[in-house]
Specification:
six-stranded mixed β-sheet; Rossmann fold; about 220 residues; about 45% helix; single chain
């Protein structure tokens, strides 16, 4: 990916750790339907967006539009790290008993300079606990901008692949594909040039949807 395409992505990642809002949202549906639990950071927590316009809300609309029986709980917290997700996942699994867990974490770990092996272990632990609880897992990957260095960028990107293979999870390689790597990526970010805007949410949803649909269909 070309360096200029990462301008917006670099800015976005630099603000993830500073975003402190959180929320737990539930989609209205039949309680008997399989539950999709989303555990992420501000990219999934509708930071700076009108409630109900983020990619997770759009995912619910897609499920309903395609008549896929499933309900969604968004347990994302802005600023969260994989350590935070690891500490929260046991209670979330116990409370919601999900059929599928979407893990969208890791960007804040890199921003805070946490060791990659720690991030990898945390993601693996979340995936393992989810599988042991009977849920399928979809790991959502991120990429670092070039200023982090080519070696680090490659190791960070490959970390998600390594975890997915080791824990036998599905994988979305790059959550912001088509958002941060466009000809004019600033057009898909909010006025702060930090967080994806409302127009970007459908693309983010569409990046996740193919793998998520396959997991739901396999049940």
């Amino acid at each position: 990916m070309k360096r200029r395409h990462f301008n917006a992505l670099a800015t976005a990642l630099c603000a993830l750790a500073a975003a402190g809002s959180s929320g737990l949202t539930h989609a209205q549906s039949n309680p008997a339907d399989p539950l999709v639990l989303v555990v992420g950071d501000s990219l999934s927590a509708e930071y700076g967006l009108k409630r109900g316009t983020g990619w997770v809300a759009l995912l619910t609309e897609r499920l309903q539009g395609e008549k896929v029986r499933a309900r969604v709980v968004n347990a994302s917290i802005s600023g969260d790290t994989t350590s935070g997700g690891r500490s929260r996942i046991p209670s979330l699994l116990k409370q919601h008993k999900p059929a599928l867990v979407v893990i969208e974490l890791g960007g804040n770990d890199a921003l805070r300079g946490l060791p990659l092996n720690m991030t990898r272990d945390n993601l693996a632990n979340m995936a393992r606990l989810s599988r042991e609880a009977g849920a399928k897992v979809l790991l959502v990957g991120m990429e670092m901008p070039p200023n982090y260095g080519a070696k680090y960028g490659q190791e960070f990107r490959e970390m998600y692949t390594t975890v997915a293979k080791a824990e036998k999870t599905a994988l979305v390689p790059f959550f912001l594909k088509g958002v941060a790597d466009t000809r004019d990526p600033t057009a898909l970010f909010q006025a702060d040039r930090i967080h994806p805007n409302e127009s970007a949410q459908a693309t983010m949803r569409d990046n996740v949807w193919p793998e998520l649909r396959k997991l739901l269909a396999a049940r």
